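Objective 1.3, modelling of assemblies. Example input:
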Amino acid sequence: MQGKITILFIAVVFIVSSCIEEINLNTKDSQVITVNCILTNSSQQVLKLCYSKKNSDVNFVPVTKADVRLYCAKNYDTTLVGTFYYSGDSKWLLNYTPQSGTDYILNVKVENYVLISAKTSMPRGFSVETKSYPPNLSSSEYINAKGCKVITDYDCTLWIYGKNKGNIIPSTTNKIVSLISTNHNNLDNFNLSTFTLNNYNGEIKNNGLSYYSELTFYLHNYYLRLEHPQGYTNSYGYRLFSDNSPGPDGNSWGPLFIIAGTFTDYAEIEFMNVSPEYDRYIKTSYNLWKAKKDESDFSSLFDSQMAFSNIENGIGIFGASFNYTLENFNLVQY
Amino acid sequence: MKIFNHYFFRRLITVYILFSISSTLQSQGVDTLKLNTEKHKIKEYTLREIYVTSNRYFSKPLYKISEKNIKAIISAMGEADPIKYIQTLPGVSTGIEGTSAIYVRGGNIGNNLMTLDGVTVYGSSHLFGFTSIFAPGIIDKTDFYVGGFTSDDGNLLSSHIKLISKDGDLKTTLTTFNVSNFLVSGTLSAPIIRDKVSILVSARISPVTWEYNALKGFLAKYFNLPDRLTASVYDFFAKLKYDINTQNTLAISFFNSHDKYDYYMADKSDDMMAWNNLIVSGVWNFFPNTNWNIKTNISYNNFSSEQYQEKRISTTIAEPTEIQIGSSIKEITFSSLAKYNFNKKVKIQFGAELKSSEFNPSTYKSISKILDYQNNTYENNKSNNLLANINAQLEYEEQNKFSLRLAGRLNYFHGENFNILNPEIRFFGNYFITQSLGINATVDFLTQFYHTLEGVPTGWSVDMIVPSDEQSPPEKASQFYLGTFANIGKMTKLSLGGFYKTMKNLVYYPDAANFFGSTTVGWKDGISVGTGESYGLEFLAEKNGERFSTRVAYTLSKTDRKFPGENNGKSIPFKFDRRHILNISSSYILKKNKKTEYGLNTAFVLTSGHYESLKAGTYYGFMPGFDNENSDDDKYIGEKDFFTHRNNYLMPRYIRWDIGYYLNITGAKVNHTLNIGIYNVLNRHNAYSLYWDSDNKTWKQLSILPIMPTVSYNIRF
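Predicted structure (tokens):
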């Protein structure tokens, strides 16, 4: 009797536990044109054009034949700037340097598809000055410091991330810095990690300057997103180091903010002033990536989402970014 | 931050159901023998409230739910509650099956108001939405309003679930003990001063952790279990009632519910979720004469939820950081409502309410174990708000001919940098065409000042509640209903009506999957504000015979939503827009005499499927700085899901059949009740969601509740 009860129990447990099953489903998969193009302040613009994949497909198929044109919109006039040419591997190129503060329209015509278009605006430029500080052997807080000053005459949304080049030269790696922190006042906390500078026992290379030990600097995943106000002498607040020595323009350096992260000895920092569309795209892409990474077993219970897209009759992103690369973010030399 | 592995979660529910045995022990005081009210209870109709006057029926837009209605429900968790019954009524769509999610006439979960003795209940469920926080033994009345709201109902858009607690017995001591698979409870009702002061106390606690530990060894042979799982679940209610004199009564009540689930996955993380309700309320009822009733209430309400994680990602981290995300609402409310009956025809009521709230949705703090202090609590979402209203209502009734009710409210909301003065009007009317046939109508203009950012549609308590502001102004609805009611003979009642409802300023939070991480701190940037429209027909028929009783509820409706930037400005289907909803329940008494009664219960549910967002494919994506497409981090970056639009796929229809058998034995001193049921007899795997398994290149279906047996055994003496 007991054996039968045990078997019955196991059988019932088995029956009631079967709640994930394969099914045949025709979701009427469709295909759209994917356009990814971020205008930058370089002399050559890159656009990626390919077909989306149906669920059963393996690879993305590039669009090799299309009419891809960039227009400049000024004072209600639209002027053709240039036509992209196909260079291979889904990449289309245009030799052109966008002008800051100018609106751009992208039109893509692919045979058998409706005209695809999108708009963006090229952000204004900025510069980044850095100052190095010699190591202070008597204080563990100074580690080959570099203070950063982002010089703008307008408010902007800045994204910052680092690329690790390794601990030797020549560089053997080029990997995004996974954890990064700052004491900038206007920091977006959407991508907080579970670590802080105080209690992360892995290696943190600080770009320098003292920080107040009673405060906690949260480490962020991959990016820093700042609402950066204009001018030299904005009120960053007491948390920042203020250097009164003359800066590159003769005025005092003023307040500097630090950047700290899991840098290798050789690294570079990328600063981006992005258009609103690109800003939204990066943020929604990060949120989706994070949700899928952390909740992969649970994500089917939530509403599915897409990353932001401003491509009309297609999918992807057409945005713009004024970039500044702080090269040789090298903590070995100063 | 994984809250739990859903495979494990399903198995956990399975184990509880398999061991679902409930026994109730009741003892009665020795000085008097309390009448067994079950024997003498008049059969209660589940149609809209019926007042029998001169063979005419007067229908109001509310459902009065009795204990008998609730007990007849066969619940997956073994314990039925008012919500499970409400889910079978016309105009109500359900979310995830077995849970407390209800969508009334196209509204969202957060558009339903639940109150206990007039105090709003924000976290109304245990176990992630599967069962109610209120012990059935403390609830005296449950009224469910769907339209024609009274003047004192406010801050809602869809329905009001009005719970009224029992008073302690003024003459007899009554003790109840209840042991079930999920909860162990005891209730004491007793006079402190006979005929003057009474007390009612109820406490429930969950033995889940002990059950899990007892079964862990056996289950580990077949399932992948967490290294540790603890659940701390309880609720406590106490009410002191003082009948000062024939004109004055005073009641003070205290309610606390607590849920905490903690699980540990070796070398990965230690996770916890918790939520807590604390309600303290004082009510003074004053009856100057037989025509007047003035009810004054003061209450304190504290609802909080919390998530915690201690994460280990590297062996170099000796002491990991603890991260906490918490949300809370604290309210102090003062209200007074006066009712006056001029005569049999005319009644008025008028009142005022003042509610001071502190909202703190999604704070984030880090606790360092090394340095042993807490740092940088992010409270930038804290806000203080004031919600006040004055309200009045006039009712006129010509007996057996018609009745009218006109109600109005003037609301004032004061938030952070946001103020609004807002009027609301409600109307209800009845007209008798003949003695047994009539028509009724309701018109409601409603405003809701709090938004619920909905996560998983279970009606659970981790949804975030936030106040209105400039970015997300108060939600508004205009609802119209016209219907007819009739009775055929003495036992059969019918109603048929249609509704139309428009909604605006509805809030949608697309990043619900990130509720359990730091992204939720920036929730304000993620919300979307849109509009909704819903219309449909509602049919309800009920027959109550000597042996056979049945109820049929059917809804035919359509609900859409429209959000800026979505679907090129076109509307999309509401996720739980179920075109057809059919609920049939029946009971048959096989035998009934003085000592024994036994019979059968059955329920059949047939609804259209809800809407899901199925991806039509993937498209090439990128994130700045990620160039290496082979790294693990890039797995979800290079390919992004593509949907034609949200809610683009209609799920298969939902079908479920439950059956139950009951046996009542009335002895000289001991009464027994045995209930045996099978939930989902057909073992139909009703799909909740579908997802693409990219590893196996196949679609997979997630079902929540398959066939489940339940057993309940009740002893009273």
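Residues 339 and 349 of chain B are 4 Å apart (CA to CA).
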